[in-house]
Specification:
single chain; mainly beta; Jelly Rolls; 12 strands; disordered N terminus; NHR_dom; metal-binding; repeat; zinc ion binding
């Protein structure tokens, strides 16, 4: 996934990658709350004052969001689907980026995480099944130390999602409030337990 970045930010610079070094990641505060990035978001996104809840105000796209800080290995990004709009098809897309969202302009963001962001360097994402994105559903997704991404629904067994995400540099979560999914709330983060490491996980492959 990913190709050369060709879109240009408002200041005229072409984005080529992430400026931080991998050694900076461990210096993050241990319990910095996980929120949505306040400034870099799709044109149809509105955010509450806590930066924990977002919703799409119109259309079915232009609703890409990012987390406010990098995600640690095995840290679960936990979401509650708070609004659903039944007149669309497709649902939430999630993934990771090695590009600091603070280095992106909202005007640069494409309408869709999949496939638009995936055609750029440093972005990995995939669509969740519609039937797993009902209003009230709690979803968690995370990255393990081999670059594999897993998710779970309402505390279910982990499901293998996709692979290939670099683990040697900071990664931010991508959450695209797409299609049937209209509103999402970030819940308190959790770490994935050791039994869900690659050697012990009961993997369920998502259909392509």
């Amino acid at each position: 996934m990913g190709g050369q970045v060709t879109r240009t930010a408002l200041d005229g610079r072409t984005l080529h990658g992430h400026p931080l070094k991998a050694s900076m990641c461990p210096k993050l505060p241990a319990f910095l709350p996980l929120c949505f990035h306040a400034n870099t978001k799709g044109s149809q996104i509105v955010m509450d004052k806590t930066q924990r809840s977002v919703r799409r105000i119109a259309s079915f796209c232009n609703a890409i969001t990012f987390t406010n800080r990098p995600i640690r290995i095995n840290e679960q990004v936990r979401l509650k689907i708070t609004m659903k709009q039944g007149c669309w098809s497709g649902a939430l897309r999630v993934g990771f980026s090695t590009v600091d969202p603070s280095d992106l302009s909202s005007a640069w963001l494409p309408p869709f995480a999949c496939p638009d962001l995936l055609n750029e360097t440093g972005f990995w994402a995939r669509a969740l099944p519609e039937e797993q994105c009902e209003e009230g559903t709690i979803l968690s997704f995370w990255l393990n130390n081999t670059g594999r991404v897993f998710y779970r629904v309402n505390g279910s067994s982990p499901i293998f999602f996709f692979s290939g995400v670099p683990t040697g540099e900071p990664v931010w979560a991508i959450i695209d409030i797409y299609g049937l999914t209209r509103g999402v709330q970030l819940l308190d983060q959790m770490m994935c337990h050791a039994e869900f490491a690659p050697s012990g996980i009961a993997e369920l492959q998502v259909g392509v």
